[in-house]
Amino acid sequence: MSVQEAVDGGHHYAEEWVPVASLLPADSPRLKGESAEHVQVLALSEAVLPPIVVHLATRRVIDGMHRLRAARLRGDSEILVRFYDGDDEDAFIVAVERNVAHGLPLSQADRTTAAARIVRVRPQWSDRKVASVTGLSATTVGAIRRRSAEASGRPEIRTRVGRDGRARPVDATSGRLLASELMKRWPDAPIRQIAGAAGVSPATALDVRRRVRSGEHPVPERRKPARPTDDTSGRDRQETLQALRKDPSLRFTGVGRALLRWLDARTAGMDQWQEFMDDLPPHVLRIVARLAEQNSAAWREVHRHLEEEIVKTCLRGQAVPRT
Predict the structure, then answer these.
(1) How far apart are CA 85 and CA 88, in angstroms?
(2) Distance from C-alpha of 218 to C-alpha of 216, rounded to nearest angstrom
(3) Residues 197, 222: contact at Cβ < 8 Å?
(4) What residues have CB less than 8 Å from 57, skipping those under 6 apart?
(5) Is residue 315 part of a domain?
(6) Last residue of some domain: 128, 145, 160?
(7) Do residues 51 and 120 share a domain?
(8) Range of the domain at 92
(9) Which of residues 278 and 208 earns the better pLDDT score?
(10) Looking at the predicted structure, is the pLDDT value of residue 117 above 70?
(11) What is the dihedral sign for C-alpha 16, 20, 24, 27?
(12) Residue 295 has what pLDDT?
């Protein structure tokens, strides 16, 4: 459900007439304020104007400042209102969405500034979801998001909520790979089942199917992740281990605690490998290299086994949470 649908579908009170003097100006997305010319046109109109939307908690106008100013200009003592019960930021988002959809259009500058505010207060929203509210393209929203992240120094959220309300990972690489594997093993499965099992959108699953059928890699070249730096990969390993340590199903079982000790012994400190390898005596170089190759092969086998378990679990219709 969109914010617009929330207002129209149940997050408001019944329409009622309220004193004009009791209402406050909007937290408006319009950088230059209201248009005096448009207010004049509405004031002179004999048409019945739709009710304005007002934030219940603050009495601020969400949608309808031109209509409110027109009512004041005509000397009306009351105006028809629909109250919206939500937080301040939701109220602002409703104001943007409704002003984009009807009435005097928001300028490009208005919509760009509004998008920057929305990605700041709702960073979990996808570019397409923000675009659907602001009337901008998803590409433009993505550029606004990148500028905002660079200016604030905040880390990027790894999952975002789309227009359908579902959370998906920002980097769909692993989801694409899993979708391609499911398609190979389950060729007659509906595309929505593939998408749901792999944690990607139906559009992404369709693109994967097209690429697989044409002999292409399921992940477009531009989306293949760059090789992480030692600092980044080390930080990711520590974050992953910490998440596992907090999991009650591992912390409070004997097998789980044994697994945590095993993983900690074999992954902790891996980002410090170079300080040990640079000064090895020549006669052990090949021995350590062979040990590294053997360990790498063992971890690849672990990875292969777990990927197969993920596929089997998805085929049984069970969800495998994405992190």
Answers:
(1) 9
(2) 6
(3) no
(4) 85, 88
(5) no
(6) 160
(7) yes
(8) 3-160
(9) 208
(10) yes
(11) positive
(12) 83
Q: Kindly state whether residues 99 and 57 are assigned to the same domain.
A: yes
Question: Which tens digit of pLDDT belongs to each residue from 311-323?
Answer: 677 666 666 665 5
Q: Do 24 and 11 sit in the same domain of this protein?
A: yes
Same domain, 217 and 77: no
Measured between alpha carbons, how far is residue 319 from residues 181, 198, 310, 313 in Å? 16, 9, 9, 7
Residue at 302 is within a domain: no
Number of Cβ within 10 Å of residue 46's Cβ equals 4
Top pLDDT among 211 and 229 is at 211
DSSP helix/strand/coil, 289: helix
Instruction: Say if 19 falls within a structural domain.
Output: yes
The answer to whether residues 175 and 143 belong to one domain is no
Mean pLDDT taken over the chain: 78
Summarize the confidence of residues 50-77 as an average pLDDT: 89
Query: Would you say residue 306 lies in a domain?
Result: no
So what's the pLDDT on residue 139? Answer: 84
- Token pair, residue 272, equals 């410090």
The token duo for 267 is 């992954």
Q: What is the pLDDT of residue 19?
A: 94
**Shortest CA distance to 205 belongs to which of 172, 227, 239, 235?**
172
Any idea which residue has 């998008």 for tokens? 115
What tens digit of pLDDT does each residue of 245-274 get? 888 888 888 888 888 888 887 776 676 666
